[in-house]
Amino acid sequence: MNLRLLPLRLIPVLLLAAPLLGAPETVPLAPLLNPRDSDYEHARPTVDKNTAGRALRVAGREFAFGLGTQTDNRTAIELKGAVRFQAFAGVDDATESTAPVALEVQADGRVLWRQEMKRGDAAVPLDLEVRGRHTLVLVCHDLGNAYTQAHVAWGETRFIVEGEKPASTVAPSLGEPAVILTPMPPATPRINGARVFGARPGHPFLFQIPATGERPMRFSADGLPAGLTLDAATGRITGHVAAGGTYRVTLRATNARGTDAQPLRIEIGETIALTPAMGWNSWNCWGVSVSQEKVLASARALVATGLVNHGWTYVNIDDAWQGHRRSPTHALQPNEKFPDLGQLCAEIHALGLKAGIYSTPWITSYASHPGGSADNPAGDWVKPPTPKQPNRKIKPWHLGEFSFAEADARQWAEWGFDYLKYDWNPNEPPETKVMADALRASGRDIVYSLSNNAPIAHAATLATLANSWRTTGDIRDIWGNLRNIWFQQEKWREFARPGHWNDPDMLVVGPVDIGSGKSIRPSRLTPNEQYTHVTLWCLLSAPLLIGCPVEKIDAFTLSLLSNDEVLAIDQDELGRPAKQQIVDGRQQVYVKELADGSYAIGFFNLAQVPQTISVPWERLGFTQPPARARDLWRQQDVPVTGATVSVEVGRHGTQLWRVWGRKGNEGVRE
């Protein structure tokens, strides 16, 4: 269009309408971005400043606007009507390291530009054609095993747009094959799961013997304490034990192919949850759309898929079940999505599983449902207006004047619940103790799990009151989030022991949709990252709670959750979390002492490329090489030769070994 041929009075109108007519416009990138969509290790992307909080500056040149990121980072934009991407890219002057890092611009999996740069290099001007492409990804990452924490400046980032403006999106998953390492279990019987179980005197007792192998299968037990009976067809032990003490039982499973026998130590006393809980939770798949039927679907699928035979036990309802309080007890009742919680618990127990429920000491829960307290004695509740203000001690996301902990605990016990997720922030000792006392007085063993999250200043006290406690905020199925949770765990190690566990949050493997439950999709963690996720949680002696709808589980995810040699590391009765033995750049090695005198060793590669991790056995604490080593994911023995162990580990991947020492070499030196 030739503006010189138009009347002057029409030119301003046409200029204002140009974007609507498809004429190019310049759109800055930064205001389009939701930093939470980024996959980041240290800091979320920052708008118009670097991730150290200062002006964007590369080799002395300052940029008035743009985007700051930090290695390793992937930040994505849905391009829509964008036709060109323009920026100045470089390592920000705030970076301390002088090592080079890689900067890339990708579109739909293709690298449009890449350069290795270091602090002091001049910013590189970019002007890239993106017409017809869908997703642009800005990448900055370390090279090899380097760990620089470099700040990266994307100065004057903008798009030339013809049509709809670009929008923030989650960085796309990297193409990586989902290789199944776990062998299928044999047809012969094999008893799996924990070798110890705790219950309180006189309380209802339920233990399902987890056993794989060809069906039909018959079960038996020697040495059961008085008050317990075993159903030989189902392998279910039920009853009540009046007398406290230690009972050593031998369990047997028999089918047409043979018999397996394993010990079980039953401890009747005050301590329950002697190994970390294994089960399922509704939040990471169904969120606020959870219902009784959806919970039952996953419970039935735990049996149908055979996961129950690997020790998966708890079926836990998260937030959004709550309805109203009812006189005369004022115990909280369910909403219309849960027509009969007593019947739900009965059906779950009939499957050999256990049931869990959710609450908070606040007036209102995170999902804006009734909580465990109120400012009136009847517990009447009104849904609060938005916006929510949790974690600030502002009502109704704070403690009410009247607590209903005792009434609620009695109601949960009457329905038959076995697990409580108690969710608020910060977790503080007074309200923690109120609920601990209420659960203990309920007449039922209810595993007590604190959520979101525990201040480490209170860790020693909370560890005497609860069976588990969240050590960080909520997990997301993004590598950077997983890595950030990982790096906060070592300081919690000393507080974990049988009956009391550090909880780095639920598993995000398989199909998930954290919060809403409206668009369930595959986990954004790569297969290697999912192996790392499960391996690390097992080494940490963490609770394992599946976050996907089990009825929708795929073969790869099922293989992650059914490797009994890996799960045995989590369920080991000694209950000592692994020690972070080696940190070398982006390589880490953990060592965990096990009850039989063996050790689990986790090798982790946090780099963007595969690496060989080579470590002298002496650095792992062994005075000489072990007599035997086994790759637990592949369930294969591996040769041990020489004074150094070397393993090949893929990008963001892991290997998990179990080793047995030689005579006179029984331990790892602390």
Helical residues, percent: 10-25%
CATH architectural type of the largest domain: Alpha-Beta Barrel
- Strand fraction: 25-35%
At the third CATH level, what is the topology name of the largest domain?
Answer: TIM Barrel
| Content-based structural category | alpha+beta
User: How many domains make up the coordinates?
Assistant: 4
Q: Please list the strands of the largest sheet in the order they lie side by side.
A: 34-33-32-31-28-25-24-37
Low-confidence stretches: 1-21, 663-670
- CATH homologous superfamily descriptor of the largest domain: Aldolase class I
**Helical segment tally?**
11
Largest sheet: 8 strands, parallel
CATH class categorisation of the largest domain:
Alpha Beta
Radius of gyration from CA coordinates: 28 Å
Protein architecture, described:
It contains 11 helices and 45 strands. It is globular. Helix 3 (292-304) runs parallel beside helix 4, helix 5 (405-415) crosses helix 6 and helix 9 (527-539) packs across helix 11 (564-570). The chain is an alpha+beta fold and 670 residues long. The protein has an 8-stranded parallel β-sheet. Strands 1, 3, 6, 8, 11 and 13 form a 6-stranded antiparallel β-sheet that branches. Residues 1-21 and 663-670 have low confidence and may be disordered.
